[in-house]
Amino acid sequence: MITVSNLTKSYGGQVLYQGGSFFIGPGEKVGLVGPNGAGKTSLFRLLMGEERADSGSIGIPEKLKICYFSQNVGELKGRSALEEVIHGNPRLGFLKNEISGIEKRLEDGEYSDELLEKLGDYQTEFEKLGGYEIEYQAAEVLTGLGIMPDEQKRPVESFSGGWKMRIALAKVLAQKPEFILMDEPTNYLDMESIVWLESWLKSFKGAVFMTSHDRDFMNGLVKKIVEVNHKTITVYSGNYDYYEKEREIRREQLVASSERQDAMLKKEEEFIAKFAARASHAAQVQSRVKKLDKIDRIEVMPEDQAINFEFPKAPRSGNDVVKLENLAKVYVSPEGKEKKVFQGVTGLVKRLEKVAVVGVNGAGKSTLLKIIAKLTESTDGKATIGAGVELGYFSQYSMDVLNPQKTVFEEVRDRVRDKSDGYMRNLLAAFLFRGDDVDKKVSVLSGGEKSRLILATLLTNPCNLLILDEPTNHLDIRSREVLIEALKGFDGTLMIVSHDRHFLKQLTTQVAEVSSGGVKFYPGSYSEYLSTIGEH
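The structure corresponding to this sequence follows.
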């Protein structure tokens, strides 16, 4: 269906990939992976015709219906959420408006054969393009992505940035194209929406080419991986787990071949050096020189950088770390309307437990963590922190406390005064802020860089209770794996909100489910919790 052959693309003299080739067939679900800056987004733009390759070819059938979901959704305004999704197909949106306008003119008594003929033509085209189903499909997709029917008539400008991303994603899905390009579709989605999207894409008959930092999401969908890295494009047949294992096997084989070649070259070069001055060996020396000139040298690319850190040893706390007693939270709107978040929450978090806090979007997960962290007050009851507990708190909103005018180094230095500059630089290097990176202003950092900076600041002061609200947002899969291993070795207590199922499965020893205005505790891992509630 889509054939990429000998593709080469560079920016400002820097080669992204050279001579890359791959094929995506009808209905295939393919993952695109590679480190930041390797050229994944550029490859999407090439496929969409938004950029031109330096050389090579991209073969796309002329009438193939392609939709592209990117993180740059543009400005959404002037329509309701439902109308915005319907207008994902501009022609359908135009026809819908025209039909409504003509029907209004007819109702007002404006009648002519020409008007009736135009109405008939528009209605015929609208039906042919699936216009009478699109409103149902749009509503269904919006609901699946967490925007309920009573919210779908709201103007898009009233939604926050994360919810606008869901509307933009719904615009793509509702069109039911033959080929979808998706750049991080799970960003800003909660667990329920991710599970719904995975199910929708599994039943989708068209092809999908996507990037995602969600390992379980990738494993559940893709059967092929295209890797962009070190100026090359490499294809692996399998899901993400297979890719990771196969990539390591291929690298080990390449290293072994390189070492054998190096040994052979060294032997040949020693022979040439030893006998170069002897006339009796001139023919042999020249033969070996020509042989070496013809050999393609095996190049082993350096391994990708990943976050490398471990938490400092935590001071010991008492056995009872967090005690919740009849906790309740009610929000009051500016209009005076009360919204009950939860009530009657009672529970105990013991030392060294790793608790996953789960629940549907808006159930109050982040609110519960904020109450425990003393960042907001409960309406009733109390959350008591145990003896000797030193608390560290991370939230996607923690980035708001970063000073955009400070450099990376200044931001960390201001949070701790008893460490040397060398310690600070080593700490930042572990989070991939190396060399001149430490002098970057916070204002120019990406979302992933800000997340890494906040995580780095948590290491400046040892703590024994970590509260993490969506710590994996903006982190790539390899960085998430390193964070998992660091948290496994953390000798304190952990409470986590995350929409990354793999992350939770690897870490948790207890699950706190926030639902129906209360919190229910389940002993055991996240996988055991899923089995208990009948999911997997």
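The chain is about 40% helix and 20% strand.
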